[in-house]
Design goal:
Layout: H1 3-17, H2 23-26, H3 28-35, E1 40-43, E2 51-56, E3 62-66, E4 71-75, E5 82-89, E6 97-103, E7 106-111, E8 115-120, E9 128-137, E10 144-152, E11 157-165, E12 173-180, E13 185-195, H4 196-199, E14 212-215, E15 222-226, E16 231-235, E17 241-246, E18 254-259, E19 264-269, E20 277-282
Parallel strand pairs: 5-9
Antiparallel strand pairs: 1-20, 2-3, 3-4, 4-5, 6-7, 7-8, 8-9, 10-11, 11-12, 12-13, 14-15, 15-16, 16-17, 18-19, 19-20
């Protein structure tokens, strides 16, 4: 095979593997947040004024949760209409819930101390219900304050994003711990570490306190939102920062993030004051 043909084959292989993105896809998230104009904003019922995490199920429901108790809602991601209200039970747990993730037919909530609350996905069409749960102690809360939960389906691992370190070894980085849902143990490797300096490029204060994380189903990359810093960043699976941008507009306290199969990015904000909201960015 000629040298030029070999180079073409190698380049094609790299593109297929996702190590390079086509130009249009490469600019999708950047262009969306450089413009900074949302396509919609939904006000949430009073029950979700302290909305925290967001996640999309495989059947297309957008799940969210209350920050201080095990209350879970489902809304139509196309219209913002509430289609379900559920609660962990039978005794409603009270904790500092900071993220939610859909993993197949399971839902997970995470606390700031790294405890995972696992429950079955509510049946589609059910508007209310009590969801029995189990609690899994990951132990990562002793290393950092957890404030963000996502899911990587290719590895079947939950992604626990750190808002702030509790140990010196994590100073200057944002750690994303990888938890195997099947083994109920830390995965291998157990974390992704991203330099704060890389995440905070172009941001005021040069900080990035992660409050939400989600996998982009189009690129396979991870999007992290940092509410205190009014910022959003895109990283690849190795932790390389592909871009970071300010969150413009009406973001009082960004807490959660989700991405639809079509490419829309949804950001939840706690009501400070007023109702909680979900803002929609058409990043297509």
């Amino acid at each position: 095979m000629a040298a030029g043909s070999r180079r073409a084959v190698v380049l094609a292989g790299v593109l297929v593997a996702g190590l390079l993105r086509p130009p249009g896809q490469q600019a999708r998230i950047a262009g969306c947040f450089e413009r900074g104009s949302p396509s919609a904003r939904w006000s949430l019922p009073a029950l979700y004024r302290e909305v925290s995490g967001l996640t999309l199920s495989e059947d297309g429901r957008l799940f969210l949760h209350n920050d201080e108790s095990g209350v879970i809602g489902a809304i139509d991601p196309a219209t913002g209409r509430v289609v379900g209200n559920y609660r962990l039970g039978p005794a409603l747990p009270v904790a500092d819930f900071e993220g939610i993730a859909a993993a197949g037919n399971r839902l997970y909530l995470v606390t700031s101390r790294g405890a995972l609350y696992e429950t079955a996905m509510p049946a589609r069409g059910s508007a209310t219900g009590t969801l029995p749960f189990t609690v899994i102690q990951t132990g990562v809360g002793r290393l950092c304050e957890i404030e963000g939960l996502g899911y990587e389906p290719s590895d079947q691992v939950l992604l626990l994003a750190c808002k702030g370190p509790r140990v010196k070894s994590l100073k200057g980085v944002v750690a994303i711990f990888r938890w195997s849902a099947g083994k109920k143990a830390l995965a291998e490797p157990d974390r992704i570490q991203v330099r704060v300096d890389d995440l905070a490029k172009g941001q005021k204060g040069r900080a990035f306190s992660a409050t939400g994380i989600e996998r982009d189903p189009i690129s396979g990359h991870y999007l992290m939102v940092a509410g205190p810093d009014r910022a959003i960043a895109e990283i690849d699976r190795s932790g390389r920062v592909l871009g970071a941008w300010p969150l413009r507009g009406k973001h009082s306290q960004a807490e959660g993030i989700a991405v639809t199969p079509a490419g829309d990015v949804l950001v939840s904000d706690e009501g400070v004051p007023g109702p909680g909201t979900v803002t929609v960015y058409a990043c297509r």
